[in-house]
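Archive transcription. Copying these from loose printouts into the bound notebook so they stop getting lost. Printout 1 of 2:
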Amino acid sequence: MQTRREFITKVSAASAAAVLSPGKFITAPVTSSSPAKIKIAGVSTNFEREPLIRPFGFKGGYMTEIWQSVAWMKSESGNHSTGLCSQSVLWSDASVFASHSESGGNSLMYAMTERAMQIINGQTFTNPVDLLDQLYPEIYEYGKKVTANPALRKTFALNALVAVDNAAWLLYAKENNINTFDNLIPAAYKPALSHRHARAAGIPLMAYSIPIEEIKAATGQGYFFMKIKIGQPGSQEEMLEKDKARLSAIHKAIGDVRTSYTKNGKLPYYFDANGRYESKETLLKLIDHAKKIGAFDQIAIIEEPFPEEYRADVKDIPVRLAADESAHTVEDALERIEMGYKAVALKAIAKTLSMTMKIAQAAYEKNIPCFCADLTVNPVLVDWNKNVAARLASFPGIGDLGLVESNGHQNYRNWETMKSYHPRRNGKWVDVKNGVYELDDEFYSSGGGIFDPMPHYEEMFKAHL
């Protein structure tokens, strides 16, 4: 296996121009016209703690609540904006989650959001992409200090910056008279986000403990593209045997179900291992088992099978592997693509919209398909994700529609109350119907409601208005 330095050297030779050259992803101009210069004249932050229905387990830990952090900023011209973030300490850095109380880990991420807002107060920016580029390195270094973790994962800092980035995009939209998501997309990234799907598949999450009967019942409700957790607890041998049994049970229950949304009429299997497989050899044993039981040709994606530090070439694996947590930044995504990953899970709601646009464009130029994965976010953020999914090219083997995971309705205790905070909660596109989100003209003309006032969240900052 190659060392990290050896692999990065190889990747740099192949893709440095795509990452670092002027006019490429990082330094590309945001619009063809001259956007307004925006001076930030006031900032504030707040958060709410949203309990979960039951402990949500993955990566060896269990979450019981998710903090919804909120960033508020005002420009010198008098415009103001409110950005949201659903924090996930366990997803973004499991070591931070394990070494602190649940509230302690959330407090550390929230402290990074607050620090970012204090840094930008009084500063001037012309576009949110440049603002993130300036903020991210400093917040990442600050995060290493407050977590006392010099190996802090980059995604921890990006997750902390989601509310800040969203607020910056909404303030940018107001200052430049933009009220549609299409007009918000910088020219440099439009090629990757140029589609306009009438539907997006709603992808629910099936954790280890979800009974096979519930997975089968979901197909009866119209769901046809489900995210199923593998990489179960135990040693590598124990995990493999459990996963083989799980795959056999799933295929026996739903292998014969048919759908009109795939080209072969069969249900696609989307497995997420969260880095639990420690070697290609172990993963290949699972794939061999899939072949034996006749499930192989239905495996559409295996997401993040290996630990992030496992940098082996995976081009010989006969299944489409998707990078998720390991694709923190555009550079990381390109590194995974060079390794042989053939899909990227985008998370505008976890890695910021600014970074997601860069990653989407980088993947597009490498002819690598993308889809949108969830972070168990609130209903408003689902529509930020949906805006990206609606504009990505169709995934291979799937019909003309976007793919967007959303599992908040499965996990939040107060989901219906949270949905009442959505400014267009009655929109046709807000809820899944027969397994898909219907993306009508109102969705596109309003950006799914993300540009509308959000009284519940804005009430937190009434003293500043």
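Printout 2 of 2:
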Amino acid sequence: MRLLQQIEQNEYELSRNRRDNRYLKIGLFVMTVAVVALLFGRVARRRKKLPEAKSIRKYAGSTLDVPAKQKLKDKIQEILANGDEIYAADFNLERLAALCNSNPKYVSQVINELYESNFSLLLSRYRIEEARRRIEHSDFSNLTLETIAASVGFKSRATFHAAFKRFMWQTPGEYIKNVKGKCPDS
């Protein structure tokens, strides 16, 4: 009889251990998922906050206030949108600052903070937009891509192609084929 009770007791403990083991596995799984989610959340937040935090540290000593930043942004916008000087191959941050009657550090700060870009990328964006306009316009149809690239300030074909693909998601050649495909007289 005692042996029978011992067997039943062992079976009960074994059953309880299996159940506890299942709960332990489920608990470990849930904790693992939670830790992974937490880590991915932190990485995503760091990626979002890093440029902003870097910008705050970089310009911590700046005396440029919000209204002055907006006024400078408006000047930058006007020059980039309407000035042909930006298509000169030697156009640079210092020249843009001079046209804005400001200093390069403030112009760079406004571009970084308000455009969330840097000077080079911002300038390339405007140059590619003008190149795209010229590719589409019949007055420029007799020009080669290299000529168009040079006319908007790109010093090399490779730089032009890389910038074009970055902003237009296709090469200039692909873009031309797509534009010609849309024209009724092609």
